[in-house]
């Protein structure tokens, strides 16, 4: 792809938030977009906006946890429009409001199923076809929370950390087939997901700014896209500090109210 606009782009979780912003960012004459999401009404609204910018759009209303539905849609879309770039963006979060709460088994399962298995369901059929063609690029939206666990969102942090490890593992293998792999690790992006976050949100970016930054970095085939720089640098620094010291810093920065007396 080089630095050129990819011709065919698939974006999951495109009906709102960062996914919507990415869809609009890649919309241009000559581009074919494959957009998926769970809310049909919102998804079709995004598709209409993308078409107004000149892009051809194919939508798929599905839950990424449905492995068969996702794989069949990816395979069918790719057969008609070979995928140049796949952005696995679909994800959910769960945040605790105080130390009185505990993340239930059901909620933990839902978060991991969407954020980890949903991404794998999306990637695997696309990667198989890209390897046959020996070209393509995949970008997986993780989070800076995947670099260091935070008390407010245990399952979310775990699922996003798994995505970082997965991309690190497959990157050298896929490079042999000329397939690029980018792990995207945003900090706070102004979306409904971040609105539900109970703590401080330092260095928050708009979804539009984040999407433009991601597009530029993908075009350069960057392996890691972590932003904003100040927060990314700080999170990475925490990983080399003594654990007790890092925990104390996170407790002040991402405050979780204490248990009630």
From TrEMBL:
Residues 7-192 form the Ketoreductase domain. SUPFAM superfamilies: NAD(P)-binding Rossmann-fold domains (SSF51735). One of its GO terms (cellular component) is membrane. Keywords: Oxidoreductase. InterPro entries: KR_dom, NAD(P)-bd_dom_sf, Sc_DH/Rdtase_CS, SDR_fam. One of its GO terms (molecular function) is oxidoreductase activity. Gene3D superfamilies: NAD(P)-binding Rossmann-like Domain. Transmembrane segments: none annotated. Belongs to the short-chain dehydrogenases/reductases (SDR) family. This is SDR family NAD(P)-dependent oxidoreductase.
């Amino acid at each position: 792809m080089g630095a050129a606009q990819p011709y065919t782009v698939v974006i999951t979780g495109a009906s709102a938030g960062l996914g919507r912003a990415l869809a609009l960012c890649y919309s241009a004459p000559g581009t074919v977009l494959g957009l998926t999401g769970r809310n049909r009404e919102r998804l079709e609204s995004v598709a209409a906006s993308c078409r107004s910018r000149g892009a051809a759009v194919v939508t798929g209303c599905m839950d990424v946890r449905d492995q068969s539905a996702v794989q069949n849609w990816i395979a069918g879309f790719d057969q008609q429009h070979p995928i140049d770039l796949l952005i696995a963006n679909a994800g959910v979060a769960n945040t605790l409001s105080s130390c009185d709460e505990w993340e239930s088994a059901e909620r933990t399962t839902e978060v991991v199923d969407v954020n980890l298995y949903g991404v794998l369901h999306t990637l695997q059929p696309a990667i198989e076809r890209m390897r046959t063609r020996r070209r393509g690029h995949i970008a997986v939206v993780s989070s800076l929370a995947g670099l260091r666990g935070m008390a407010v969102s245990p399952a979310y942090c775990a699922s996003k950390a798994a995505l970082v490890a997965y991309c690190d593992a497959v990157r050298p293998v896929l490079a042999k087939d000329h397939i690029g792999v980018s792990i995207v690790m945003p900090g706070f992006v102004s979306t409904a997901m971040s609105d539900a976050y109970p703590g401080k949100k330092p260095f928050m970016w708009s979804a539009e700014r984040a999407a433009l930054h991601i597009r530029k970095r993908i075009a350069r085939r960057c392996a890691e896209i972590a932003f904003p720089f100040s927060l990314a640098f700080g999170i990475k620094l925490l990983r080399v500090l003594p654990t007790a010291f890092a925990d104390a810093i996170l407790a002040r920065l991402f405050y979780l109210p204490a248990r009630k007396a």
